[in-house]
Design brief:
mainly alpha; about 0% strand; elongated; about 70 residues
Length: about 70
């Protein structure tokens, strides 16, 4: 998934390319964090993992800010 995202970002116009390439870092961190959270034995729904875990929220907001900066 990250490879496809990077390939897409590399194809963007030069003004957005850098922002979108850099936005892959928090995306990768979020995917790693999601894997860690879902690997634990917990009864919490996935929605709670995405919206109540502070490191996950930081990754999500960082990705959003970098992505929007490239628009």
């Amino acid at each position: 998934m990250i490879a496809a995202y990077l390939a897409w970002a590399a194809g963007e116009h030069p003004g957005a390319r850098t922002w979108h390439l850099v936005s892959a870092l928090p995306l990768a961190a979020a995917l790693i964090r999601f894997g860690f959270l879902t690997g634990r034995r917990t009864a919490a729904p996935v929605e709670d993992l995405l919206t109540r875990d502070v490191p996950m929220l930081v990754c999500e907001l960082s990705w959003l800010a970098l992505f929007v900066a490239g628009l």
